[in-house]
Amino acid sequence: MRVTLGGCLVASLILWHNAKTSYPLLIGRLMFVGMIELLVFGLFERWPARLPRWLARWALQVVGVAVAVPLAVFLAYVVTSLGDPPFWHDKERMAGYANMASFSLILAPWIAVSARVQQINGAARSQALAFELERCELERKALDARLRLLQAQVEPHFLFNTLANVRELVDSGSPQASTVLGSLIAYLRAAVPRLHEPATTLGQELELVRAYLEVMHMRMPDRMAYALHVDEATLTLHCPPMTLLTLVENAVRHGIDPSEDGGRIEIRVVERDGRCRAQVVDTGVGLRRHGRSGLGTGLSTLRERLQLTFGESVQLRLDALAPHGVSAELEFPARRSPA
């Protein structure tokens, strides 16, 4: 439609120089011709449904437009001359008809070719966009599947480690075994359903962390202490399940538990400049004494899960503290969890 209207405007400016009629009548006739040509172009775009192999549809459209030009100009003159003598009885009007028909016969096929090229380009862009959307959807599904696989790997890792701690308490004959087991059962009832959720908040994570630390504190009351320092604004931030819990469990299992004197765990969570910073510090045996030279399986899996959720802007670091202990620091974009 844009190409047709533009062609009519150009033709009117060219023909107006020698026209013997008013400009509104001239542009009206050209618009009439343009609309008929557009109808012919659209007709041959869909009809006939099947063409011989040797005949391209674009060629049929161009030829159809060219053949329809004289008839379209004839109809334009007849329609705009109602009540007047036939235009073919007037030499000047007949000359105007010939000029318009000749010029339209030259211009219309080129307009048809231009419109066809735009159609092809538009179809190609639409197809490319459809392919891109499909590719993005497949990538999203692949990332979601990868995230669920990593999460499934975390669940038994955490549960088996916790149950092993309880078994040690039972084997040692501690009178607190029954109390710890009851606390663990209550904790698991609240924690296990959340393990399968695709997302949670830091507030929910901190509830699980407190319950976990309480269980561990009951197992070794004289060897472990803990404290939490959390900004209220961070409680609604979005994070994958088991984010803080993995850091805390790592500090207990590899820092506090192997130490004869035990230690203290401090958890700090703050939000600054659009990023959330979570730090878990323990005063346990440290990195070297327990061979903690790298992130390990649990923390490596946590970093990959966070990268799948937030991208490459996630940072996870382990630093040794003096005289002993480890600081695990995690940074990721601060995103509010949807209500």
What's this model, at a glance?
This protein is α+β, with helices and mostly antiparallel strands and 339 residues long. Strand 4 and strand 5 form a beta hairpin. Helix 1 runs antiparallel to helix 4 and helix 6 packs parallel to helix 7.
Give structural attributes.
single chain; 339 residues; alpha+beta; Heat Shock Protein 90; 2 domains; five-stranded mixed sheet; two-stranded antiparallel ribbon; 7 strands; 13% strand
What this model shows, in words?
By secondary structure, the chain is α+β, with helices and mostly antiparallel strands. The protein folds into 2 domains: 2-133, no CATH class; 174-333, Heat Shock Protein 90 (2-Layer Sandwich), CATH 3.30.565.10. It is built from 8 helices and 7 strands, in the order αααααβαββαββαββ. The chain has helices at residues 2-15, 23-46, 57-79, 91-171, 177-195, 202-219, 243-256, 296-310, and strands at residues 200-201, 224-230, 238-239, 263-272, 275-282, 315-320, 326-333. The chain has a 5-stranded mixed β-sheet with strand order 2-4-5-7-6, with helices on one face. It has a two-stranded antiparallel ribbon with strand order 1-3. Strand 4 (263-272) and strand 5 (275-282) form a beta hairpin. Helix 1 packs antiparallel against helix 4 (91-171), helix 3 (57-79) crosses helix 4 and helix 7 packs antiparallel against helix 8 (296-310). The longest helix is centred in the middle third of the chain and has 81 residues, at 91-171. It starts with a helix and ends in a 6-residue tail after the last strand. The mean pLDDT is 79.
